[in-house]
Design brief:
With 173 residues, this protein is of the alpha+beta class. Helix content is 28%, strand content 35%. The chain has a single domain (11-168), classed as Small Protein B, Chain: A. It contains 4 helices and 11 strands, in the order E-E-E-H-E-H-E-E-E-E-E-H-E-E-H.
Length: 173
């Protein structure tokens, strides 16, 4: 696999499928901190041409984004995709407009049941371009964490980081 300097290539596993060489545009690190991720999905996103150009320039932010059902369709709300200066000046779309997510009908039904009957939340984790160069959104069914859960996770991460550091600095004599 050739590496292009401006593309971040990672291996992503979503529901037993492995995707290679994706270009990550934006990540929602706050979602991983505030929620316990239960199941992940990959969804297409409906965009205008100027918005695709902005995504390629990495002009997106998912910090306060969430997903909601509107008339039986899943939409990503409050995701900020900035307007580029090089695109048409007369066409300036709203940067935080709801954008439709494209999923299979069975996946939509499963998400709808989880949200409305089980009380879970759907959060976007990241926007990326897949190996076929289509804009995709990684979404997840999530359950909110309590403060003590967040503290326990932070403590476990700190202990793990310290253990790795100790193993790395350990001298073999």
């Amino acid at each position: 696999m050739k590496c292009i300097p401006h593309i971040y290539a990672i291996i992503l596993q979503i529901n037993q499928r492995i995707y290679v060489a994706i270009n990550i545009v934006a990540q929602n690190k706050k979602a991983r901190h505030d929620y316990e991720i239960l199941e992940k999905f990959e969804a297409g996103i409906v965009l205008a041409g100027a918005e695709v150009k902005a995504l390629r320039a990495k002009r997106a932010n998912l910090a306060d984004a969430f997903c909601r059902f509107i008339q039986g369709e899943l939409h990503i709300m409050n995701a900020h995709i900035a307007h580029l200066e090089t695109t048409n000046r007369h066409y300036v779309p709203d940067t935080r407009t709801p954008r439709k997510l494209l999923l299979h009908k069975k996946q939509l039904e499963k998400l709808y049941v989880k949200v409305h009957k089980d009380g879970y939340t759907i959060v976007p984790l990241m926007i990326y371009f897949n190996e076929r160069n289509f804009a995709k959104v990684s979404i997840a069914i999530a359950k909110g964490k309590q403060n003590h859960d967040k503290r326990a996770d932070m403590k476990a991460k700190t202990l793990d980081r310290e253990a790795r550091s100790a193993m790395k600095n350990r001298s073999y004599e």
